[in-house]
User: Fold Large ribosomal subunit protein uL23 from Methylotuvimicrobium alcaliphilum.
Amino acid sequence: MSELIKSKLASVLRAPVVSEKSTIAAEANKQFVFNVQKQATKNQIKQAVELMFEVKVDSVRVLNVKGKKKRFGQTLGKRSDWKKAYVKLKEGHDIDFSAA
Assistant:
């Protein structure tokens, strides 16, 4: 893989989502949750996870999360929309975030 493609794939994943729901999914189904770029495709997310964590990906599910409407004093505001990806790994593969 060329360096340009690797650098582009490295920017697809923004951060892992650490929540109670994502922890349960990781323990039960080997699914890991990531905050990804809004324009990222399932194939790009799969390639990025395989490249960064050296694992084999079974499937990828994505969803768009709408930003909440919030009040900041007297003005109304809105948090940014973002994209979430559920990545399921093949048998025998695991991601350890404490070591990464």
Observations:
- The radius of gyration is 15 Å.
- The first helix runs from residue 3 to 10.
